[in-house]
Amino acid sequence: MRDSYEQYSDEELILRLRDGEEDIIDYIMDKYKNLVKSKAKSMYILGADGEDLIQEGMIGLFKAVRDYDSGRDASFFTFADLCISRQMYTAVQASGRQKHAPLNTYISFYSKVTAPGEPGGEEAELLNVLFSRSELSPEEMIIDKENVENLERMIERELSSFEKQVLDLYITGMSYVQIAKVLGKDEKSTDNALQRIKGKLRRTLL
Fold first, then answer.
1. For a Cys-Cys bond, which of 66, 82, 108, 174 suits 178, CB 3.0-4.6 Å?
2. 3-state secondary structure of 129
């Protein structure tokens, strides 16, 4: 049965599912399971439990299948990607995690994350995600415990609630466009917030 579904687009399968082919839901959930796991791996950097995040991601995927409207939404993949990310991030926020967990240890600056806008692509060190090579590189900065502590204090003192949310999602590998969709904000204000964050981080680390 699975082989017979592979020749159809997701959008066609959603229509057939709503016409009564209930087996399609299992096929779609299985098809997108690796996407959920990949996102859970990125979100884990925010201090959440990996298995819980996978479960939340699958809930988000189910909601995507349930709510997808081909006449209103973009492709199913884009809609599912948004629903999964939003469900996971909402769960992370609701869990009462320690604030800015990825930034409170020395080693976290060198942890591997997927570069923004490159889901499933090559992993890069967190510093290279925060600062592209055209701006700053790890070799140009000396990161020590004092730097990290200064950075944490700056985040609490100088970043707005919105900027903290943007930073949280950016270091998981999301682009500002994806962040805007997850947070329900416009792209321009999200990009502006990201540029402000980078400026504040540079001033703190240099």
1. 174
2. helix
* 186 touches 166 (CB < 8 A): no
Q: Where on the phi/psi map is residue 96: left (φ > 0), alpha (ψ -120 to 50), or beta?
A: left
With the C-alpha atoms ordered 69, 73, 163, 143, is the resulting torsion angle positive or negative?
Answer: positive
What digits encode the pLDDT tens for the residues 156-183? 888 898 998 888 888 777 788 888 888 8
**Are residues 130 and 198 in contact, defined by beta-carbon separation less than 8 angstroms?**
yes
Distance from C-alpha of 168 to C-alpha of 173, rounded to nearest angstrom: 10
d(CA 148, CA 134) in angstroms, rounded, equals 22
Residue 111: both structure tokens together: 């942890």
Hey, how many other C-beta atoms are within 10 angstroms of the C-beta on 6?
9
pLDDT band at 106 (very low <50, low <70, confident <90, very high): very low
Q: Please state the length of the chain.
A: 206
The domains found in the chain, sorted by start residue, are 2-94 (1.10.1740.10), 101-205 (no CATH)
Q: Which residue has the tokens 């055209």?
A: 134
| Beta-ladder partners of 125 | 112
Q: Are 141 and 206 in contact (CB under 8 A)?
A: yes
pLDDT value for 206: 60
